[in-house]
Every structure is written in structure tokens, then in C-alpha cells.
Amino acid sequence: MTLDVEHIQKLADLARLEISAGEVRDVSAKLTAIVGLVDQLAAVATAGIAPMAHPLNQTQRLRADVVTEGDEHERYQSNAPLVERGLYLVPKVIE
Amino acid sequence: MHEKTLAQLSAALRKRSVSSLELTRHFLDRIARFDAALNSFITVTAERALAQAAAADRRIAAGDATALTGIPLAHKDIFCTAQVKTSCGSRMLDNFISPYDATVVERLAAAGAVMLGKTNMDEFAMGSSNETSYYGVVHNPWNHECVPGGSSGGSAAAVAARLCSAATGTDTGGSVRQPAALSGITGLKPTYGRVSRYGMIAFASSLDQAGTLTRTAEDAALLLEAMAGLDARDSTSLDAAVPEYSQHVGTRWENVTIGVPDNFFDKGLDDGIATAIHAALGEYEKLGATLQRIRLDNVHLSVPAYYVVAPAEASSNLSRFDGVRFGYRADDALRGDLDSFYKRNRGAGFGAEVKRRILTGTYVLSAGYFDAYYLQAQKVRRLISDDFARAFADVDVIAGPTTPTPAFRIGQKTGDPIAMYLNDIYTIGANLAGLPALSIPCGFVDGLPVGLQLTGSHLSEPQLLKIAHHFQRATDWHSRMPPAYA
User: Fold this and answer.
1) Domain ranges of chain A
2) Quick check: B326 and A80 CB within 8 A?
3) Are A31 and B315 in contact (CB < 8 Å)?
4) Partner residues linked to B41 by β-bridges
5) Number of structural domains chain B divides into
6) In terms of CB atoms within 10 Å, which of B250, B280, B437, B462 comes out highest?
7) Is the pTM of the predicted complex or chain greater than 0.90?
């Protein structure tokens, strides 16, 4: 299957990734090769095989539903590019 | 001093024939002298290292030392280190100062180890050559025109060039074992869940595991002992007691059966590597092991299964990098709508290989394709895992090459992702099945190191390390040093 430039732009939209006009042809060629590689899986007989999500077939441990972390927003927000009065700034969402 | 193993340095520190400050200064000097040519470190934390070394010396004097107290080591830059840049090899995190320590970092620091710095790596651990790093390629200490392997390429090169006594790494599809093989050192990937993933920046959560890059299996045992164990902050960490690996490595071995998969020696394997692996297996026979031919019939499907499962998990994990709470933000940030803002931040913050994997993951998870790709890959994953389980009913350990070729030239495979992905053809199976595996040096091809891979059943690290240690007692491949760094 060929993943053409249009298909790549659609995937890039879904993944919230900007792919420039200069790189999209290269991405299309390489992704087509990668999909060709994984398409080998289609020929494998897997009827009755349970999908394996965890290598040791474990389920996740649960912990007590109690607060274990304090408020450290100032420390954590020191990594944020733009903060005002404890809020992360992004482009206007609501007109 | 740098020619000594971690175990030897540990003994010297406790006999007080050398201090941690002397040792730390020695390695910092070597980094200053040699790393311009290697590029194995992203960040060197000299001041912090000297403070930790002074504290270690006080602890040794007080008689309160562990085997790792005062040992200078390096962390792959995928492990969060409080107050120190943690980049994951990406422009996306070039400005990220972690507010906390990863469990691995915390435990090694608590044992008294000294952190020299953070090592270079493929961006978000996606690569087999260290060429996808935002911080530039790392050079192989045996030949500067070759890659050191990846994604833990900086850790492997630094240990091989004796710029640190040991280093941490992570292994999602071979990222500890493959660079260890290409750089001529010992690399251990433990059982999935053996070591906490807390604070280890996630790539593919059902495959990721922290590991060690060391000179010897004995050194790996010492490190793993301090790193491993249950961690409430990682819900996938195993609730299993941590054996005293280092006490176990030297014990007598008997009746060891080594399985040798016929199909690991098919086409695609370099002749020189095949010769070195057969010689290593011959050495094991001399040591009293029994070799048994086995088949892992579905192992050829491990690369395609991996390139569905890993990108799918990566596309989900990497969605957290949006340039809002931390990470790269395009300069003209607040213009346009929210979606185009995310796209610009992510488009400029991620490199080409990371984008390819996010897009591959998005594709295999998208509506209409999920069953055909993701679910089918998870079923194939079980077939591969079942092959290993069947083999371990008859053999104690599986041996074969770690990589199909020795280190290749920088730039040789960057244009062809499939050729690059096939470097991991022998290593990915252990990740899919969650098994412990290690690579040890076993020879050279044209002056470049060869790695022998040993894979064990779940939680068989004590036996695996012992089998590796017995080989290293009988051979000296692991003590060869790259001539330029002797």
C-alpha cells in the first residue's frame, strides 16, 4: 500500500504534527516502505490466538485512592514556556 | 585507574587505596580530554559529581559504604535527574530541567554512586546508531568513522572509552544490547518490570526496560542489585524479591544447556560474526556446557510486529509533548488556533525519525486499521513469546549473535529506515516476550567488536549473569580497550 502525500497530511493532522512541504515526499516514501514491512503480518495465521498486551500477562496493581502529592505547581510550572497567574498560556480557544 | 572494572574499583575504594574524589577527578579529566572526539555526553555534571564524591568518601570513612559508594557512572539522558537538563536527545526537551529523579537515579544515588553526567542517545530512544540525536552523532571508540550503535550509544561509547566505569541505558528493541555489541562492552536488559520505569521517559511502555552498560557481567550484577525492585510509582514494576546477583555470578555451574537457534544463522548474518559466535559457543562447550539446536519459528516476524506495537505506543506516549506545560515552543507561539499551535511546536520540536514513528503509530491505530495491524501484531507477539517458552522447556539459555553486522559507517543507513530497523532483528524478540537478555564481547571483525547474545527465561538474571561471567573468566575479549583510549 502506498501512503501518498495526501494520506500523510491526514495522518499528520490526526497526530498534530506539522510536516513541511519540503519533507512530505520523503515521509511518504519512507512510511510506504515501513507499511510494506509491517504488512508481512497479514499473512500470519492467528485464529484463536489471544492478543498479548503485557509480556508477563500481568494486570496493573491498584493503590488506595488517597492523595499522595502536594501542590507544587510553581515548581512544575518553572518548565512552562509561558505562565500567567498560575495558568498555562495557549492561543485563544473561546472567542 | 580507568582500566579497572567497577568491581575492582569498588574493592579499591573500600580498601581506601583510592578515594572517590581521585577517581571522579580522573574520569572527569578523561571526559574533558576525549569527549570532544566522541560526543558521548550531552551534559557533564562536574560540580555535582565532586560533591557526591566527597560525600561518598565520608561515607566510606564512616564504614557505611555499599558496593557502589564512590563509583563514578553516567546516566542515559532519558532518565529524569532533578535540577539537571533531561533532553531525551531531542530539541523538544532541550530546555527541560526535571523537577524530580527517576527511581533508577534515586536508587543509585542512595547507594552512593557518583553521577558524572548524562549521555547522548537517539532522539526519544528511536534509533540504532545514535544518529537521530538532536545533539549530533556519537563516534565509535574503536573507529571514529563508525556508529557506536543505539539508542544508548552515548552510554556504550563512554563505557567502551573508559570515560566512566559504567552507565545506565534503556532497551525497547535492543537499545542496550546492540550498542554494547557494537562498542565491545557488556549490556544487560533485565526482565520487563524488573527495574522501575518511573522517571524514564516513555517510548513504548509494554517494551521499555532500564538496563546496564558495563565492562563485565559481574559489574552488571552489582548495578542491577541496586536498581531493581518493586516501585509503587510504576504500576508495571514486578513484586518479586531482588536476588543478590553479585553473590551468585561466581558460583559453580553445572549441567547448563545452551539452545542455539538455527534460524539466527540464516542469510543476512555477516560471515565474520558467524565465525566469532561459533568460536564462543565452542568455548562454552569447553567449559562444560551442552549445546542444543533449537528453532524459534516466528522470530522473523519480530521486526514487523515491533514496528506496529512500538510506534503505536509511542504515538500515544509522545502526545504529551505539546509545548504547553514544558518542552519546545515555536517562537511565534500564541498566533493561530490551538491545533496549529500544537502542530508548529511538535513539527519543529521532533526530528524526522520520531515523526515517522508517530505517523506510523497513528496509521496503525486509526479507524479501520486497528484490527489488521495493532491487534494482529499483538497476536503475533504471543506466537513469538510462545516460541521462547517452548524453547526454555529444554534449554537454560539461548545463545546467538546480538547483531547481524559489526558497527557500520556513519551515514551508511540513514537514508533507509528498513535497513536500520533490521539491525535489531536478533534483539527485538526478548522485548516482545519480556525476557532478560545480555550481550557480551566475544571477538572482532576487522578491528570492530562482536557481541554474543544470551537470552534467559523470565527473572533468570542470576543464571544469565553467571553464564556470562563464566565466559568472561575464561576469555579476555571484555578487557580489550580501544587503542586510542587506553
Assistant:
1) 5-43
2) yes
3) no
4) B119
5) 1
6) B437
7) yes
Residue B413 lies in a domain: no
Spans of chain B below 50 pLDDT: none
The per-residue pLDDT for B333 is 61
Smallest CA-to-CA distance from B183 within B156, B162, B163 is with B156
Taking contacts as CB-CB distances below 8 angstroms, the residues of chain B near A16 are: 319, 322, 339, 342-343, 346
- Are B27 and B114 spatial neighbours (Cβ–Cβ below 8 Å)? no
B312-333 b/e with 16+ CB inside 10 Å = b? bbbbbbbeebbbbebbbbbeeb
Domain of residue B248, CATH code: 3.90.1300.10
Domain membership of residue B70 as a residue range: 6-252+440-451+468-485
Task: Kindly identify which residue of chain A lies nearest to residue B418, measuring between CA atoms.
Answer: A34
B311, B214, B159, B403 alpha-carbon torsion, rounded to 10°: -50
**CA torsion, points B61, B64, B68, B70, in degrees to nearest 10?**
-30
**B334 lies in a domain?**
no
Interface A–B counts its CB contacts (< 8 A) at 181
DSSP string covering B75-88: EETTB--TTSB--T
Q: What are phi and psi of B361, to 5 degrees?
A: -65, -40
How far from chain centre, in Å, is Cα B281?
24
- Asked, as a colleague might, if the bond just before B366 is cis with ω within 30 of 0, I would say no
ipTM: 0.96
Nearest to B301 among A8, A12, A40 (CB): A40
Residue B19 lies in a domain: yes
